[in-house]
Write a structure and sequence with these properties.
By secondary structure, the protein is an alpha/beta fold. It has a single domain, classed as Vaccinia Virus protein VP39 (Rossmann fold). A seven-stranded mixed sheet has the order 3-2-1-4-5-7-6, sandwiched between helices. Strand 4, helix 5 and strand 5 form a beta-alpha-beta unit. The longest helix is centred in the last third of the chain and has 13 residues. It starts with 15 loop residues before the first helix and ends with a strand.
C-alpha cells in the first residue's frame, strides 16, 4: 500500500525550491488547461498547483484525502471564492453524478492511491467525452513499467494515450477520453 505525505510535512510540498524547480505554467500548458477549462485536481495537498489552476482555469474542483491538507488548502484558495471547490474525499470512493471536467490533473498523486482501478473509474466518470487526463509521476517513485500499467488502466476505462514523456524527475502521460 502506498503512503501519502502527511499534512504535518506539507511544507515540503509548497516551498520556494519546489517553486523554482517546477514550471507550473508549463505543466498547465502541457495539460492543455485553458481559461475556459473546468479542472478536476486529484491529490491537491496544500495547494501547490491549486492556486495556479485557479488563476488560469475557468473552475477547479480539488479532491484531497487528508483533513490537515484540506484545512491548509481551503485557507490558501479562500481568495478565489467559488471558483475553487475543495472536496475532502478518497477519489477511489468518490463518484461524481456527471461528467463535468475538461481536464483531470494528477500531479505526483496517483502512485499514492490505494485503489487505483476504483480511482480510475471515478475519474473516467468525471471527465467529459473528449476530455483529458494529465498524469505526472515522480521518476524516483514510479518506474517506467508502473507508469505503463497506470496508462493501461486508464485505457481500459476509455482513454487513448496522446502523448507521453519522461524527464529527470517526472514521467508524463496525456490521455483523451474516447467519444464513443
Amino acid at each position: 500500500m502506498s503512503r501519502v505525505c502527511p499534512s504535518w510535512l506539507s511544507f515540503i510540498l509548497y516551498n520556494p525550491l519546489r517553486k523554482r524547480l517546477t514550471d507550473r505554467h508549463k505543466v498547465l500548458d502541457q495539460s492543455r488547461i485553458t481559461r475556459d477549462s473546468v479542472v478536476l485536481e486529484i491529490g491537491a495537498g496544500n495547494g501547490f498547483f491549486t492556486e495556479v489552476l485557479a488563476r488560469h482555469a475557468g473552475r477547479v474542483v480539488s479532491i484531497e484525502l487528508q483533513d490537515g491538507m484540506v484545512r491548509k488548502l481551503k485557507r490558501r484558495v479562500a481568495k478565489f471564492g467559488g471558483q475553487v471547490n475543495v472536496i475532502r474525499a478518497d477519489i477511489s470512493a468518490h463518484a461524481f453524478e456527471e461528467a463535468f471536467a475538461d481536464v483531470c490533473l494528477l500531479y505526483y498523486s496517483f502512485h499514492e492511491v490505494h485503489n487505483k482501478p476504483g480511482a480510475a473509474g471515478n475519474i473516467a466518470g468525471a471527465v467529459k467525452k473528449s476530455g483529458l487526463v494529465a498524469l505526472y509521476e515522480p521518476t524516483v517513485e514510479v518506474r517506467k513499467r508502473d507508469m505503463e500499467k497506470t496508462v493501461k488502466l486508464f485505457e481500459e476505462k476509455g482513454f487513448v494515450k496522446e502523448e507521453e514523456g519522461a524527464h529527470l524527475f517526472t514521467r508524463f502521460a496525456l490521455m483523451r477520453k474516447r467519444i464513443s
